């Protein structure tokens, strides 16, 4: 089945650092989404991308829909302590027979604060 | 997590018991889905619905039933709980998957333990 390979699995951040994570797949998608999940909460949508090559920002967050439609990255600039959490990429494909596509998720990138 | 309400938040079941996780949304969304989240596995789709009266299986449907008698509600039933169903369950809804400008909302999660 389709899979999203998300990396890195985990990373430590120091306040002020920039952070990058990405998702890749061997399949083509027409929607890429990035979510953040805090402990004990559901995922919250950060950025949605709907066109190949699209670059979208949401405050300090920037995400891009890869031109091949098989990948996406998320950058966080000037990280702050409240950025810690788990970040998930998700992608959707459309069934061209007309039915709805479904989201598949990467396994997440866990951001923690450097000790 | 605007508009998607899940109950209960926590539940402990004995093996073989049945129960229903409730999900309701008040945004008149066509699309609703259930995911389970396990450590290191990301979110996996159990069942989904593209509208009242229409349901379909996702990636991991075994042991679960769903129905969609109204637009607002999408309950998930565990027929005979097994320890392998210990997980965190998330309900999600959206106007339509893959549409430009669409947003997918998640509930806050239901933590289920089967002993």
Overview of the molecule:
The complex is a heterodimer of chains A (115) and B (115). Chain A is mostly beta strands and 115 residues long. Chain A contains no helices and eleven strands. In chain A, the strands form two sheets. In chain A, strands 2, 4, 5, 9, 10 and 11 form a six-stranded mixed β-sheet that branches. In chain A, strands 1-3-8-7-6 form a five-stranded antiparallel β-sheet, with no helix packed on it. Chain B has 115 residues and is mainly β. In chain B, 0% of the residues lie in helices and 51% in strands. Chain B has no helices and eleven strands. In chain B, the strands form two sheets. In chain B, strands 2, 4, 5, 6, 9, 10 and 11 form a seven-stranded mixed β-sheet that branches. In chain B, strand 5 and strand 6 (54-57) form a beta hairpin. The termini of chain B are far apart. The chains are: A mainly beta (115), B mainly beta (115). Chain A binds chain B through residues 1, 4, 6, 30-31, 33, 35, 40-45, 48, 50-51, 88, 90, 92-94, 99-108, and chain B through 1, 4, 31, 33, 35, 40-45, 48, 50, 58-59, 90, 92, 96-98, 100-109.
Shape of chain B: globular
Give the oligomeric state of the chains in this entry, treating copies of one chain as homo and distinct chains as hetero: heterodimer
Q: Residue share in helices of chain A?
A: under 10%
The tally of strands of chain A reads: 11
């Amino acid at each position: 089945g389709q899979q999203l390979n998300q990396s890195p699995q985990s990373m430590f951040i120091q306040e002020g650092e920039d952070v990058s994570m990405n998702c890749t797949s061997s399949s083509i998608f027409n929607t890429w989404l990035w979510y953040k999940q805090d402990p004990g909460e559901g995922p919250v949508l950060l950025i949605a991308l709907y066109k190949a090559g699209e670059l979208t920002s949401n405050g300090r967050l920037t995400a891009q829909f890869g031109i091949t439609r098989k990948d996406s990255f998320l950058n966080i600039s000037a990280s702050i302590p409240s950025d810690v959490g788990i970040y998930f990429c998700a992608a959707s494909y459309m069934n061209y027979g007309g039915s709805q596509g479904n989201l598949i998720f990467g396994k997440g990138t866990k951001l923690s604060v450097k000790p | 997590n605007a508009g998607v309400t899940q109950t209960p938040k926590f539940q402990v079941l004995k093996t073989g018991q049945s129960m229903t996780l409730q999900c309701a949304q008040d945004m008149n969304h066509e699309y609703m889905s259930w995911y389970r989240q396990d450590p290191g596995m990301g979110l996996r789709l159990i069942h989904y619905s593209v509208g009242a009266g229409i349901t379909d299986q996702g990636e991991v449907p075994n042991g679960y039933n769903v129905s969609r008698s109204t637009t607002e509600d999408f309950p998930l039933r565990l027929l005979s709980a097994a320890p392998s169903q210990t997980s965190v369950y998330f309900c999600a809804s959206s106007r339509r998957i893959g549409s430009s400008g669409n947003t997918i909302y998640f509930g806050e999660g239901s933590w289920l333990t089967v002993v």
